[in-house]
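Fold these two proteins, one after the other.
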Amino acid sequence: MKPTHLTLICHARTEAQRVGRFALDDEPLLEAPGPLGELSTAARYLSAPELRARQTVEGLAVTVDEGLRDCDLGSWKGMPLKQLDEQALQLWLIDPQAAPHGGESIAALCQRVALWMDSALAEGEWIAITHPFVIRAAMLHALGAPLASFQRIDVPPLARVHFSHYGQWRLRLV
């Protein structure tokens, strides 16, 4: 059995990130990110379906993968954090099972990402452009960390997280 290597790259910066609001599915980038640096020519490339992820990798041959889609934030899409009901936001921040926005809970997102990591990738090298929430969920899965850790991870634009899998997922620092 050969190992699987997965690099998750966060999409480039959006206006939503700049002003502190949840993104819309068709949220564009503030500006083109430029070259993503040294990327493997042997890797297979994937992208989340949202516009901001696809724009981050314009010019590369990528396959859009629904498993990398962002968390469905329901009625909170496009909403500034300051305009949300404070009680509902606090519930969402402390209870991974909560979905006061009517969309996907953090627990459901983490389960979806874990299933994707465990079943969607063949052996070899993969590079995927996705979202901060998806990267957080992948980190929790690889580490076997509790869902309560989700809100303690910051993933800035264009951040990279490396994983390897040979019998189990491992977080790989480079």
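Now the second one:
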Amino acid sequence: MRAMFGLVLVAGVGLAGAAVYMAKGYISKTETALQKELAIKAQTGGLVEVYVVTKAVNYGEPLTKDDVQKSYLPKNTLPENTFSDIAILFPEDNTEPRYVLRQMEKFEPILAAKVTEPGEQAGLTGELEKGMRAFSIKVEAADYLQPGQSVDIYWTGATENSTGEITRLIESTMKIIAVDRNGKSATSDGSIQNRTMTVAATPEQVARLAQAQATGRLVMSLVGVGDDTEVGKVEVDTGSMLGITAAAAPVTAPAAQICTIRTRKGADVVEIPIPCTN
């Protein structure tokens, strides 16, 4: 009996030691995982629940409750004006949908700047400031242009006083409010179909652009973000582009003045040279 009791005691002590070892390992792993989680939280600021779109949406499409869901995003990298409350995104007192103002990809967070107010249609009128007008310009390629960017506009054509075509900067830093993305298919000869770009302009600028579009060709040059450099007059013709200067006309000496008098000799009239007195 004593031997049996001793064996049981030894087995119990062994099991207790193993349990303590296993518990110590578990606590160590748990503490390590906790420290990693705290480090990640310190770097990200923690995770915040915000609403994202469940599919890719394009400009002008309606946005309903079926198109959104909640997702966790890092707080430190979260854009401003997101939605974390469905009652704010879709108020109960207004059952009209919101409309998309900027293209969003699947699971992209919904921002207040990317959607209209409930029931408000997406359109160009909302992009125009007081006194401004929308004017569409034909462009050959618009893939790199986006609404909200600014462009300089150059006109190429001929004038009455020019011997050939000239290119002149006619408008600077015009804001793009819309870009036509349709018609990307090529024509039968391989050329790219024209598309349209819409800019915000004053009535005077609209008249100038309409005249320029009717009398020549327009080319857009993208302006960098935040570039407010004032651009003076820019005009280039073929000669100045190639560095060709007009040749000066040769200077010729004035012809010497010859003075004569007429004298009649019989039936003939003869001119006789004499010194000029003036």
